[in-house]
Amino acid sequence: MPLHCGQFQLDLSRPLVMGIVNVTPDSFSDGGRGADAALNHALQLLDEGADILDVGGESTRPGAASVSEQEELDRVLPVLEGLRGAPVPLSIDTSKPAVMRAALAAGASMVNDVNAFQADGAFEAVVASDAALCMLHRQGDAQTMQQQPVYEDVVAEVMAFLHGRIKVAKQFGISPGRIVADPGFGFGKTLEHNLTLLRELDTFSCLGVPVLAGLSRKSMIGVLTGRGVDQRVFGSVAAALLAVEHGAQIVRVHDVSGTVDALKVWHALRYQ
Ligand SMILES: Nc1nc2ncc(COP(=O)(O)OP(=O)(O)O)nc2c(=O)[nH]1
C-alpha cells in the first residue's frame, strides 16, 4: 500500500530515504544553519536522491532548549516556501499544532511529530489535510528522556504506545494509508533498548503502517564506533541498512547520498 502524502503517493516497494533539513542553531548534528543555508542544503539532499525532505526548526535532542512557536515558524516557513513545488514531499518536524497548520499551508505534505500528536489540537491540525503523519515513541521529554530510561519490555511498551496512537488517529478519521510509525531510537532509550528495538524492528509490521527509523549520527552510533558526531556517516549508513533489513520502509538520515547507494545495493541483492 503506498503512503498517502498530500499530492504524493509514495511507493513503498523500495525503502525511502528522508533527508534531514535542520534549521536550528543547536541540533546535535548539522545545526547552525539559517534559512538560506538550510534551503541550499535541502536542494543538495534532493540532488543526492532524497525521497522526502524533513524540515525541523526545533532541536529534539536530549536537553534541547524549547523554542517559541513564532521562532519555530520564523525558521521553517522560509525554507518550506523556498522548497514549494519540490518534486518530493516536504515534511515538517514539529510538535506544535500551529506550526503544523502553517507548514501545511506553506506546502508541507507530511507532519513528523516526535510527540505523536499528543498536544491539544495536534490531530485537529492535520485531520482535514491529506498529509501523512509520522508518530514517534518517546519516553519522557527532551529534558528528561535520557536521564534513566527504564522498560519492562521495551518492544512491547513501544508497540503498545504506537498502537494506541494509531487507534486515536483512526478515531479522528485519519486513514492508515497516511500513517507512519517510528519507535523513536534515542528518545528515552539506552543503547541496549535501541539495539533490541533494531533487532526486533520486524515485529512493528503488525501495526499495519510503514515503519520509519531514525538512527542517523545518533549517540548510539557514536558509542558503538567511538566516532564524533561528524564522523558517523559509515556507522549511520550501516544502521540504516540494518533498519531496512529489519523491516523499516523509511529511514531518516543526514547523509542521503551514502544511504541511497547502500540501499540500491540492498535492493538489488534482495529483488533483482
Ligand atoms: N520521526 C523522527 N523524527 C526525528 N526528529 C528528530 C530526531 C533527532 O535528530 P536530528 O533532527 O538530527 O537532531 P535535532 O533534533 O537535534 O535537530 N530524530 C527523529 C527520529 O528518529 N524520527
Automatic annotation (TrEMBL):
Sorted alphabetically, the keyword list is:
Folate biosynthesis, Magnesium, Metal-binding, Transferase
The Gene Ontology biological process terms listed for this entry are: folic acid biosynthetic process; tetrahydrofolate biosynthetic process
Query: E.C. number, please?
Result: 2.5.1.15
**Might you report a single GO cellular component term?**
cytosol
Superkingdom to which the source organism belongs: Bacteria
Per its Swiss-Prot or TrEMBL entry, what cofactor is needed?
Mg(2+)
| Record-annotated Pterin-binding domain positions | 15-264
GO molecular function list:
dihydropteroate synthase activity; metal ion binding
Pathway involvement?
Answer: Cofactor biosynthesis; tetrahydrofolate biosynthesis; 7,8-dihydrofolate from 2-amino-4-hydroxy-6-hydroxymethyl-7,8-dihydropteridine diphosphate and 4-aminobenzoate: step 1/2
Reaction(s) catalysed by this chain, per the record, are: (7,8-dihydropterin-6-yl)methyl diphosphate + 4-aminobenzoate = 7,8-dihydropteroate + diphosphate
Alphabetical list of SUPFAM superfamilies matching this protein: Dihydropteroate synthetase-like
Record-stated family: Belongs to the DHPS family.
UniProt name for this protein: Dihydropteroate synthase
Natural source organism: Ferriphaselus amnicola
